[in-house]
Amino acid sequence: MSTPRILIADDNPQGVELLEAYLSGGDYEIQTAAEGEETLRKVREFKPDVILLDVMMPKISGFEVCKRLKANPETADIMVLMVTALDQPSDIDRAVDAKTDDFLTKPINKTELLIRVTAALKCRQYKNQLERALAYIDGVQGNIATGS
User: Fold this and answer.
1) What is the CA radius of gyration of the chain?
2) CB distance 5 to 46 below 8 Å
3) Omega before 58 cis (within 30°)?
4) Tell me: the pLDDT tens digits for 62-96?
5) Do the Cβ atoms of 15 and 58 come closer than 8 Å?
6) Beta-sheet strand order (sheet of 102-105)
């Protein structure tokens, strides 16, 4: 498997710096974005495996960014972990409605972050393996049906 790619999307430079420091011990390729539109552009260019997405960002909120990513078949399988200071049940409901894969509340605990990023990467890897296996099975079944 290639080096996992993580996009940190947060308009707070100190928050970005902290997440980068927490992830620095791992073998990750990391890029950052400071607002919603930049996040969407970076997703197209960088093709991350996981996005650590702040909810309250300028121009386009993290909720809207997540909705757009999950609605697009080209980006729907990217694992999105919303990272926010919002902690009300209604905020979690909005994150779930946006189809986030996970939700982390600030202040971020390093161990919890690393566990969740690892789990998100494994989930994405297993999903890719499952899709390849299903494509193989479809191919075999097609060859059996046609007698090839």
Assistant:
1) 17
2) yes
3) no
4) 999 999 999 999 999 999 999 988 777 787 888 88
5) no
6) 29-33, 5-9, 50-54, 79-84, 102-105
